[in-house]
Protein: IS110 family transposase
Organism: Iodobacter ciconiae
Amino acid sequence: MFYLGMDVAKAKLDCYLLTQLDPLKGKAKVVTNTAKGLADLLAWLTKNHIPHDQLHVTMEATGVYHELAATLLHDAGVCVSIANPAQVKHFGQGLAVRTKTDGVDSQVLARYCAMINPAAWLPPPPEARILKGFLARREAILQDLLREQNRQEKAQSTVTPELIHQSINDSIAFLNAQLKKLQSQIDDHIDRHPGLKNDLDLLQSIPAIGPQSGTQLLAVMHMHQFNTAEQLSAYLGLVPVERQSGSSLLGRAKLSKAGPSQIRAVLYMAAIVATKYNPHVKALFERLLARGKSKMSALGACMRKLVHLSFGVLKTQKKYQAEYQNA
């Protein structure tokens, strides 16, 4: 097996083909982060007698800029891994790598690929990618609407010309119309795909998981591969992180808050509802409060419980059962 590290940027891809691990030897190649650039990379690999089905490429998850490279390389028969940037950073520190450049990062990724052998990545199905795009657009419009509503409130509290009031009102009306249209498109898209529709129905069988939190969880769980509920919770930043060392450092455990913050915000509101109407979450909330946990700490545990319940209904393909007892 051959190993290649790829440092991804918006405009270019810094690649390092590992030919020898100790001492480190390899070949560097920089291509544009475009379909043509990736075609040039594949041609360069062929010229160097590297079969595509014997190549393992590792890159970091960098927003959306890694998606084109990962998808096209996978389609070409290359084994692709998407690494957690924090894990790669700590790996590089363990190797005593202090220089920070794109070229050096690609070397670290190549060594990480060869020594750690990360799991292969599989591209999400097209319908999941489309749903993710719809939800991202809806979130953007919601943020625009919130800003316009704040401007409207400010204008109403000051001496503002009528033309400005009308402009703000027109903008709010337009954004509301866009939201309504986009929500209709999201609903139609889910209805056209039985897998998405079935899983959304399962998620919404959980008390406190409604259309908004359900579609957010649906997109995440169809876009990524999670083997356990703990992995899903960690991705959403809902696992507790402790800080303790000897007797000098003893901090309260806090949520890691890694991953998408907008989903945590939706889950927070769902958890508040769940403490009243979801029997499993309500029992957990009351038990933690009785043990002296703060309300915010207990709500964090409730958010995590909702995620575990969501993972469970999709894994078993069975609707939520209020009478189910954990072993």
User: Anything to note?
Assistant: The domain at 2-116 is CATH 3.30.420.10 (Nucleotidyltransferase; domain 5).
